[in-house]
């Protein structure tokens, strides 16, 4: 087996994670997840609002994605073959969490937009919620793509 074939048959580590396709999504996931976290944290909570769930999902995924990235950079994933399956499982769970948070936030944002468009301050929060919904769906898409590509990589190992 050549060194190129050996490198392709294992998970990358160190700065090599920035050269493989599924792992290139770590940085955009952190950026868009952080934007969701910031935007939701900056708005007011009205009525029965799912922003607590959205905050939990964005903070959980941000922290664990950052830790996952650090583990890959440190090369901890070289010690066992289970890391590929854990990578798929984590990113699939994160995509599911973000999808549930995105749908709930979009529903409440739509309801708030219909009832509070006359108030200028509430309209500002409504616009921030719209941005949070958009970024949340982008984060969902990034995590889903990462999960699918990680599953393809896992299958090829």
UniProtKB/TrEMBL annotation:
GO terms for molecular function: structural constituent of myelin sheath. Keywords: Lipoprotein, Membrane, Transmembrane, Transmembrane helix. This is Myelin and lymphocyte protein. It is a multi-pass membrane protein. The keyword Transmembrane helix applies. The chain crosses the membrane at residues 21-40, 52-76, 88-110, 130-152. It comes from Acipenser oxyrinchus oxyrinchus. GO terms for biological process: myelination. The gene is MAL. Residues 17-155 form the MARVEL domain. PROSITE patterns: MARVEL.
